[in-house]
């Protein structure tokens, strides 16, 4: 609310409370980061099992598969952040 009342002259200074808020929201029981970490660990375990005894010459497939796992693991969290920001902006306008 202060940023709206001051306008363009508002400057936000970060402090320890911002980090505590982020940790409480994102690392808590219903946060996104533990879900993303668990999903990524499961996918990489399946990935290791799939390519365990692979033939020589399949290094490119391993790198591509690793990149795809990383992308699809972090993507739901990044999409969730956008919706959360939109929700906060709409809540602020009310």
Protein topology:
Blueprint: H1 2-6, H2 16-26, H3 32-50, H4 59-93
Helix pairs in contact: 3-4
Question: What do these coordinates show?
Answer:
This protein has helices at 2-6, 16-26, 32-50, 59-93. The protein has 94 residues and is mainly α. Helix 3 runs antiparallel to helix 4. The longest helix has 35 residues, at 59-93. The radius of gyration is 20 Å and the shape is elongated. The mean pLDDT is 77.
Structural key phrases:
94 residues, mainly alpha, 74% helix
Concise description?
The protein contains 4 helices and no strands. By secondary structure, the protein is mainly alpha-helical. The chain is elongated, with a radius of gyration of 20 Å.
Return residue spans where pLDDT drops below 50 for at least 5 consecutive residues: none
Q: What's the number of extended β-strand segments? A: 0
* Main sheet specs: none
Element string (H = helix, E = strand):
HHHH
Q: Give the DSSP E fraction (strand runs of 2 or more residues).
A: under 5%
Cα-atom Rg, whole angstroms? Answer: 20 Å
* Helix percentage range: over 70%
Q: Which outline best applies?
A: elongated
Counting DSSP H or I runs of 4 or more residues, the number of helices is: 4
How does the helix and strand content classify structurally?
A: mainly alpha
* Ends apart, CA distance between termini: 11 Å
The whole-number mean of residue pLDDT values reads 77
